[in-house]
Amino acid sequence: MQALSSDNLKASYIAVFLAAAVLYVVTCAPGPLWQDSGMYQYRIWHNDLEGNLGLALSHPLYHIIGIAVKYIPLGEFAYRINLISAIAAAFTIANLFLLLRLWLKKNLPAIFAAVTLALSHTFWRHAVIAEDYTLYTALLLAELLMLLQYVKTKRMVFLYLLGLFNGLAIANHLWAVIAFACYLTFLAALLVQKQIRLRHLGIIAGLWVIGAAPYECLIIKNIVQTGDFTATVASALFGNEWRGDVLNTSLSAGLVKENLVFLAYNFPTPNFLLFFAGLYGLKKVSPGRGFKNVLLALLVFFFAFAFRYTVPDRYAFFIPFYCLVSILIGVGFNFLITRPNRKILRWIVLALALLPVPAYIIAPVVAKKVQFNLSTRADVPYRNDYVWFLRPWKTGYRGAEKFADEVFKELKPGAVVYADNTMVYPLLYMQEVRGKRADIRIISDYASSEGLPVLSEKSIEQWLSEGDVYTVSAAGGRKQRPIVWKIGD
Fold first, then answer.
1. Which residue from 187, 400, 419, 427 has the least number of CB within 10 angstroms?
2. Is residue 387 part of a domain?
């Protein structure tokens, strides 16, 4: 615990945090966004903690933070919401540095691991848009810090904090259930070995309940309102329609190939080989058997969950696994590279850690030239999908609001415009937040948030009887400007 109070260590932690914060703030998207990010911005604008896609997709802790940020009267609302991911990502990187610094008592392996995760494609990409993933990883790394400190000091306060942080993580994202199962097994072993008592377990459980309270309150509210315990539990575990994806056990050749491409693109340097050195050397440097077992269990379970997951954006579900990989890459660096007779190799490896940046610059050009299939939606206006997906930074991106402005120019007063889940949120944002075109009605077929008018509320004939109805799509071509189609013509 003495190391935790060291002035040098505090200064190093702050320096790493600030460096990561600068990277992500500078590369953060400046305004409204498409798809899930746009939905989060819309929900936060409406103070909506639950959404309408099932409890598993509510992420109440993230939205509570977003609502608090909403009322900070500085700059663009959407930019402030995007910055939540950037700041949480900076805490993730700083926590990763601190974990390895306290564990290995060396700066270089900790810095190397932090840079590796900071520049990994999927983590960086979700650090600069409105998403809840980096908030989860900040809490995951905090949990591992508490676990490490308990194993090293045997002080119960660290287990108490472990329970609190995991509860908060549950309130943010159900990824935390995987870690919860690992920690519960660890605590059960401590109880059997009489290293902790039932009262200690009770305090840990109480703090976990406090941390998870935002999610628990939503569950209780739904049980009271619906009277259907089974349906509420199913919603809390799977959302409205994702049970099959969550429980999927089959793998196709295409799925395996795409997953391997995801993995390679996140660590596009020979440094990835240090992961295997880290696995080999883990036993030699682990502060305890329990810590090593939890780390390996998290690695396996997070990988297995993401690898056989079948949702379209499953690449994002590898993010916790990438955190564990980066930890082990740091351990591998410590095991192989920090020896006194390997100074030249050390600098080569550190230089290679920066290789992802030029890789991200080149990859969209190459992918477009060979027409590589990204399996993403390619008809979004003002968005080059190769650049949007393969380059993690979003500095200066204004495509979503340009799209909304173009659509609004085409609409007559009193019109009804139908937009799908990708395109509806920029329109709603520009109307409700920026105050543009209050005279039109925007509808969708995807009721992702309470209050969003949906097509099913009325038939298309009823909408048409009340006025002109339009739908939007991309025109294609180099700029992909939107086309506004009048339904019924």
1. 187
2. no
* Domain-located, residue 364: no
CB-based contacts of 26, cutoff 8 Å, min separation 6: 395
Question: At residue 49, what are phi and psi to the nearest 5 degrees?
Answer: -85, -20
For 218-246, letters b (16+ CB in 10 Å) and e give bbeebbeeeeeeeebebbbbbbeebeeee
Give pLDDT tens digits for 127-181: 999 999 999 999 999 999 999 999 999 999 999 999 999 999 999 999 999 999 9
Domain, as residue range, for 405: 399-486
Nearest alpha carbon to residue 180 among 230, 143, 232: 143
The answer, yes or no, to whether residue 254 has pLDDT greater than 80, is: yes
Which has more pLDDT, 377 or 436?
436
Q: Domain count of the chain? A: 2
Q: Are 322 and 263 in contact (CB under 8 A)?
A: no
Domain assignment present for residue 333? The answer is yes
Q: Are residues 173 and 251 in the same domain?
A: yes
Gap between the Cα atoms of 472 and 68, Å rounded: 33
What is the model's pLDDT at position 451?
63
Residue 472: Cβ within 10 Å count: 22
Confidence of residue 447 (pLDDT cuts 50, 70, 90): low
Q: What's the whole-model pTM score?
A: 0.93
Residue 393, in any domain of the structure: no
Identity at 50, one-letter amino acid code? E
